[in-house]
From TrEMBL:
Protein name stated in the entry: beta-glucosidase
Organism: Rotaria sordida
Principal localisation: secreted
Lineage: Eukaryota, Metazoa, Spiralia, Gnathifera, Rotifera
Source organism superkingdom: Eukaryota
GO BP of this protein: glucan catabolic process
Places the protein is found: Secreted
Residue ranges, compositional bias (Gly residues): 251-269
PANTHER family in alphabetical order: BETA-GLUCOSIDASE, BETA-GLUCOSIDASE G-RELATED
Amino acid sequence: MINIDRNALHGRNWEGFGSDPYLSGMNAYQYVLGLQEQGVVATPKHYIGNEQETNRLSDSYSANIDDKTVHEIYLWPFADAVYAGAGSVMCSYNRVNQTHACQNNKTLNGLLKNELVYRGNVMSDWGATHAGVESALGGLDIEMPGGSGFMGYALLAKVHDGSLSEARVNDMVTRIFAPYFLLEQDQSFPKLDWNRDVTHDHYKVNRELARAGMILLKNLRNTLPLNASMDRLLTIFGAAATQYDGGLNPGGGPTGQGYDGAIYQGGGSGKKDMI
């Protein structure tokens, strides 16, 4: 997940690399290289403008973004992922400027495939496909499960009646198989081995990252704890200053609803329900 963490309440922040497009892009670049060096197709997501979890499955949610902002912020990490050679990109649930992200000709064909010269495939998020021909013409190459089955034989019928060109279908097939053969998944796919140790010393890296990320506050002049008798007014500002009721994450929070305040936010498809 390489979306931009523009708000601390976004329920998928923990999956990404932060709010800096440059930092996210550099991390995405290295992440793609690391995965694909091992023969795994990297799939950067969620393309594009998927910056909140609230109503993420609703047709009413549209990320309306001007061209300058798209290029300077939201497209940047995906561009670096493409330059690293990502074999697949996942389009998102939301609309972009009122058009579904998985059938958006401007973002998929215009920005991704033409401007960034992306040669891999575009797959939908689960249930994010809303049409067959419109999605194929808009730039979608793979429909993932969870929808109504717009592609497959249904799409083949559209070729026969002239609604979709055979050339576009061939392009979809080429984009799907290109990373498969490029990463030699037809030859060197690893055998299942439950005894294989894939943990190595990752815990050491995680611990060092946690240490480096700590912030130490110095209690100068014994400011804390505050004296209740002091004739002063303490004001807290910001989106995380109080319980957030109906914010950017409901529906993807740890409880499944996510209305439990800013600090308790988290979730997405990788969430774990709290007891």
